[in-house]
């Protein structure tokens, strides 16, 4: 890897010499680099998931010399839609941030659907090379705002959109989701990198334990730790099986480096009925892990109670069509009843600490 200059907007914050990080402005450094100092791992973490079928098509269409993560990232200066960090060769004194920012995306259809008509167009800069995650997706610029489109099965899209509505009903900070034809789309919650999104791995590393994550976040900010507890309640309620250190995080002020808040909640397509219709009484790890966490905090948590009637109304207003089965002839009714049963299980296992208001 050639020597690089790491910048936040047009402000140099570090050099990467022979792969070694040499900080110049530690306050503005990405939190991942503050924690590890591993510049190569940070760069590679920004790359599109190479296991996605359409990522391989995309790399071929862009005529990348190599198909590894580092090559993909450096092809677009390691720039992303959701933060202001980027790199350039250390000898480059001319390139400015505005030169490398994404202003158009001609490869959205190829990244999302593998569209054959997008394959043969001339190579160009695209945010898809730093669009992380395991599902087929793309960025589209609409009326000056970036939206992420995601593909999936009907039950996955239904679960993700319903999760957004439930989070809103609970008063949680949620990334905005909308149905768009056969896809679901989510508005860029950084507003074109007016703030920087940093995934939780930057703070906690590869850590699945709720209590250890909570304790690590308390060191950062007590209020963020509290927001994390609410997220874990939400995950327990909606049976979100896929929360991990890359799909939640914090927002930072890109001028001061200060942490502002937890980022809006997103990525709930593997929740509720996305993997079938759960038939057993809720008593799973998501509920028991939340219970252990709440006892560890020893702080009361008060949340809004959702009625089956309200949940059914939200489900009926969600346009995707999960398949009916012998266990769930009416999938929306099933989803509403199942959510109420999970709410009840959370209440019963956390008496004395968890309370509800109407």
Number of strands: 13
Based on the coordinates given, report the CATH architecture of the largest domain: Orthogonal Bundle
Cα-based radius of gyration, to the nearest Å: 21 Å
What oligomeric assembly is this protein in?
A: single chain
- Terminus-to-terminus distance: 57 Å
What is the residue-mean pLDDT, rounded to a whole number? 96
Strand order of the largest sheet: 3-2-1-4
Q: Ranges with pLDDT <50 over ≥5 residues?
A: none
Shape: globular
Provide the succession of SSEs.
EEEHHHHEHHEEHEEEHHHEEHEHHE
What is the CATH first-level class name of the largest domain? Answer: Mainly Alpha
What is the name of the CATH topology of the largest domain? Phosphatidylinositol 3-kinase Catalytic Subunit, Chain A, Domain 5
Report the portion of residues in β strands. 15-25%
Structural class, from helix and strand content? alpha+beta
Number of helices: 13
Short overview:
The protein has 358 residues and is of the alpha+beta class. Helix content is 35%, strand content 17%.
């Amino acid at each position: 890897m050639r020597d690089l200059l790491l910048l936040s907007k047009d402000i140099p914050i570090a050099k990467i010499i022979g792969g070694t990080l040499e900080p110049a402005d530690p306050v503005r450094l990405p939190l991942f680099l503050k924690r590890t100092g591993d510049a190569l791992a940070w760069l590679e973490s920004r790359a599109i998931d190479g296991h996605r079928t359409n990522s391989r098509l995309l790399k071929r269409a862009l005529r990348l010399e190599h198909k590894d993560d580092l090559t993909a990232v450096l092809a677009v200066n390691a720039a992303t839609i959701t933060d202001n960090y980027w790199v350039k060769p250390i000898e480059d004194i001319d390139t400015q941030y505005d030169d490398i920012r994404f202003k158009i995306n001609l490869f959205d259809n190829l990244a999302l659907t593998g569209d054959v008509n997008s394959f043969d167009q001339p190579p160009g800069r695209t945010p898809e090379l730093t669009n992380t995650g395991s599902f087929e997706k793309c960025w589209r610029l609409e009326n000056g705002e970036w939206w992420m489109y995601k593909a999936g099965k009907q039950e996955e899209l239904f679960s993700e959109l319903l999760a957004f509505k439930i989070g809103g009903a609970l008063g949680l900070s949620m990334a905005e989701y909308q149905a768009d034809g056969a896809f679901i789309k989510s508005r860029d919650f950084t507003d074109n990198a007016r703030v920087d999104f940093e995934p939780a791995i930057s703070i906690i590393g590869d850590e699945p334990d709720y209590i250890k994550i909570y304790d690590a976040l308390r060191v950062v900010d007590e209020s963020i730790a509290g927001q994390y507890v609410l997220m874990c309640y939400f995950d327990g309620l909606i049976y979100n099986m896929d929360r991990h250190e890359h799909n939640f995080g914090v927002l930072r002020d890109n001028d001061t480096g200060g942490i502002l808040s937890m980022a809006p909640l997103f990525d709930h397509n593997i929740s509720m009925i996305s993997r079938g219709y759960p038939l057993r009484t809720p008593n799973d790890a998501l509920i028991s892990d939340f219970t252990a966490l709440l006892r560890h905090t020893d702080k009361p948590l008060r949340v809004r109670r959702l009625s089956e009637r309200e949940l059914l109304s939200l489900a009926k207003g969600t346009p995707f069509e999960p398949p009916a089965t012998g266990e769930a002839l009416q999938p929306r009714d099933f989803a509403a009843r199942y959510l109420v049963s999970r709410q009840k299980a959370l209440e019963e296992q956390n008496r004395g600490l968890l309370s509800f208001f109407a």
